[in-house]
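Exercise 7 asks you to align residues with tokens for two separate proteins.
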Amino acid sequence: MRFQLLGPLSITDGGETVVLHPSKPANLLAALLLNAGSIVSVDYLQRMVWGDEQPATARAALQTCVLRLRRLFARHEVVDTPIEAVPGGYRITAGGRSLDLVEFRERVRRTQEPGLSAEAAMGALQGALALWQTGVLANVRSEAIHRDEVPRLLEERLRVVERLCDLRLEVGLCGQALVDLWSVTRAHPDHGRFREQLIEALYRTGRQTEALAEYRGFKAYLADGLGVGPSAALQRLELSILRGEDLGPASEPPALAGLPAGAPAAPAPVAEPPGLPPVPWFTGRAEAVATLRRRLTAAPEGAGTPVAELVCGGPGIGKTALAQQVAHLVRDDFPGGRTLVPMAAPDGSPRAAAEVVGELAARLGTPDAGSGPRALLILDDVVDAAQARDVLTAVPGHGVLLTSRLGLAGLVATHGVRVHRLGPLDGAEARELLTAVLGAERVADEPSGAEELAAVCGHHPLALVIAAARLGTRPALRLGDCARWLADDPLGRLSLSGHPRMSVVELFDAALDRLDPGLAAAYVALGALGEPGWHAADGAAVLGLTVAECEAVLERLADAGLVEDGPPGPYHPHPLLRLHARLVAGRAGGGEARGPAGTPGGAGAPSHAGTAGRPAQPGRPGQSGRPAQSGQPAQSGQSGQSGRQTGQGGRPGHVPPSGPAGRTGQPGPAGLANSPSQPSRSTQSNRTSQPRQKV
């Protein structure tokens, strides 16, 4: 008996084929066979069977599905591929005789054996492709499998088609190559390598006019649909065709062909440059995307001159998503590849510049991060300007995109970095994002509900994605009903179960943990202000500082991405951040402080704890700079103490140690206004490590 994955999921004995009916056991079987020979975790199997939203009884139901599969195997006399329960999950063992996917991979692997002729390699690749049928896993009704696994399978097939066409071009079988290339270029119009092979095959068969027409049609398609131009390789091919040059051997001779006896060894293949995929559901930011693309693709002003752009803004505002999407769009201008390196450790502290440079060199495949073909580097989540400055010095000649919650004004002055500050989406962009996730029909059916939902989320990208993801799993739920449900507790309900990165509260908590304790206390205390904007004079009364000192505090909060705008006008916190400040104040005072239902941070008297429960004023002698949490009274009158408190839901809170100005035991509000916005190493060692949350 043999399983078939490269088409509808089925079992065959060579004569009779049984196509499995769509069911949860069929989802489970597909997930196991896709990972044949490996231990597959229970969590992965549950996600493949039920999706991201799993029932509470998923683990027990999974065992029932395994039992049903074993009965199916017994009914069809499947004895060579048993399902084993092993520590950590399940495993199914299958070879080339019992699973078509394994046979496909074995055939492809044999084409890489040394000494194999081009004709033999082409025969093996054709045999491998013959195993495929239409409708891969069409009877498996698992959104997770079709989202995460089927595209990977199809990509394997396309790579084999690409290699087969390369071989045919290499040995002069251009007519045979054209038969496949006409169909795959139409089925995959964005695949530039297939289009390049088609144009080359047309030219090699004497069809110069058709080759040029195909090139110009593809160039127009890219310009109209994606706003990009053909790759450098395609442009060189067009120039050769226009000049009537002899192309000689194929442009990319495959490494599958054997070498004649006594021939020198071929050089080692060059590793494919690193790349970044497009961002799912990315919408809006058209002006920022256009500006970044124009600046990054412009010719450097001189040899070794870096082109550095900074994308900054508050937590969850979409900095990394914008940088990654732009990197995908400009991929053809960076032959050295595109790579993203985190600049912060898991606890939020800055990574050493030498460590980052070493990682960049390893990813780019060069001994020196500043050498090799021009690459685009994304330095993600910069938390220290000096760290970023050292890395920029080590990578001359490459394009660099930095993302940070900080403004990093010093880099503008010293390294010519240009800044793009992101705020919430506008109304049209928020609607576009909801449309991308939920579909145009559902949003058009309830335009007022979409507007209400965007307003409740404050047009915040992460909040909108979380809300849309919830709606995507509940097709019968109306957008307006979801908006009103979220409005009752937007911070508590804007999260996805089991995904800590997909939680507004977790994200904002992590951002607060990065602040100097005194600055964190100021942020929480200012949340009590009822006005839509924070003026230095009003904040001074709350914090017990002078107006000038309070303005310095607000400037540091703006630099940390927690408020927008600034002098001479008011500072504006995002409505969800304002709610978060009140929530943290409520934890300190033993209550849940929230804004009015339906309007995050909207008008109305805030419900916050009284004077006894308010967070300690920053910089006051004998008071902790960070509020206690979850009903724990703030420790006061205990200078020099440091420790941890267990907060709401087990989340640790912090009592700052004595030390720099603006912390316990240090006099004067002015200490807070002048202390650094980032905690020192000694401070971080006394604070509870929190996993970094960001978008």
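Second protein for Exercise 7:
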Amino acid sequence: MTPPPARRRRTGTNGAAPAHNLPRRGAVRRAQAITTYGVGSLIAVDHESFIVSGLDEAEQSWSRDESPRIHERRLARLLDVDYFRLPPASDDTSRDGLRVRRFPLMHSCPECNDLQRHRDFNPPAGRSVCGTCEVDLVPSRFVVACEAGHLGEFPYWQWVHRSKERGASPTAQCGGKLKLRTSGHTASLRSILVSCTCGQAPEVSMEGSFRRNALRDLGLKCRGSRPWLGASAPVQECGLPLRTLQRGSSAVWQPVLKSALSIPPWSDGRADPLAEHWDVLREYDEPDHVEIYLKGVFKGRCPVPLDEVMALLDAEREEDPDGEVAPTFDHRYRALRNKEYERLRAGNDESEHTRDEQFVCETPLGDQSALGPIGVTGPMLVKKLREVRALKAFTRLVDAESTTDSNEMPLSEHTLRWLPAMEVRGEGVFLRLDEDRLDAWEKAEAVGTRIERMRTAHQRVLEQRADDPSRVVPSPATPRMVLLHTLAHVLINEWSLEAGYPAASLRERLYAADDMAGVLVYTATSDSAGSLGGLVAQGEPEVLARTFRSAVRRAEWCSSDPLCMETEASGAGGINLAACHACMMLPETSCEHNNILLDRALLVGTPEDPQLGFFSAILQQ
């Protein structure tokens, strides 16, 4: 990820920039290669801009030494791959790195105001400067994208030569050169002026270019451009409406991340040597046939005993869906979460397993009667866990958490049997809410009214962001989900104070469904903060009860009250209620839902209705 700059090469026949490695001055952390700077994303390095190339080139460039394989069978089955690979390491010894391409290609010179492709400035090799003025070139601030995930250059020529009726000019080419300058009067788009030296069109500003129909009025539709795949990728006509975006906007790239905990029977590291053979082994029902195959592959010395192999095969077949109709991806992902929930409830005692066990979950030894009045049950100490997070795809313009498969852009042109992923190892605390008390609380009319306001606002935002509202999935807001989500946030904030963990090193994992009501808070970093033991100590019943009382009382007041508690809507799009940065928000690495669907009134109640809160009894003690 940190090699020296490659030599400048000629562009392809279609004008796409060649791929090269990220310059050393632009090193990024390994985890950012799937969360922030994954395939198809834009990355700014000093005054230059690049797009991360697809996995087709990563297959050739990521060396095994710097991007080793990792395995997680349940997640691999879900994503239909054989294995995962870590992104290349970023250190001084790294010889390889992420492949990137220059994008956008349109640049402007602040000295001569020319606006043209980067190569037309005739810059010296290895530099991004105007060949005439010798000043740094500025990449275009604007790009265009569609909901299918395509990305392209902003159509400056069509924008300048549009008619007064806002239609595109019929002129094929005018022979002039585009100019871009800033008037400096304001910081708005009105001060960014684009003109053409042909004289056939007046100088126009960029004001109005972000309207939903601005490019549609010019008769422009998406051409299916995929610059991260390079010149060899075939261009497929898309036809969807184009939207103008700022180059650094979060809507330009959102990762579709899927994760899984390593749980028995797949959490034993001894099963990894067979990771690439499970699809073949599933075809055999008899132990003798399995044994013959393994002896042939491993030349008579199988690293895993035959009885363990058969047990793993039986467990995998149990997870296969019943019925003739194949389940959807979302259904299978929920089934994966259900298995985790069952295992977290059942536990996995460390004394009964080998040292290679990657999942250890035990019942605390203390008296749990102190948790009954609070409404909490079944705390578990997760002394060892492993999580694998894989980059499945990415989206543009569409919320990655509420997307459908049709909105997701794959990471490569060809079908590959692997995906980039990260693994974290650490510890955590799992707890559940009392089902009887939760069922009664969910039926309260005041609870349903607040949730309906949040769900309606969220659904409206999803539909506004989508060009085709019919493809928008329903909002996941339910009383149980919002309660568990808000509870996880207050626990993370409390433990960051009590246990000394930075809030960014803790992460939530919610189990909210009709048959699930649990929260797992665990260390989510790959450094030493995941092995200190301080978080597990917070799961002892006496300590946990004290933590709940402190956290709920702390959530009762916010420094922004009474505005925070009494607000009708907060956050982007009004998706939150009583939740703000002074009380509920967490670092983006800690939250599964991007800090939306939060309401601390569901925990503590409101001044007008104290019984609204699930934990209101704590405040009366």
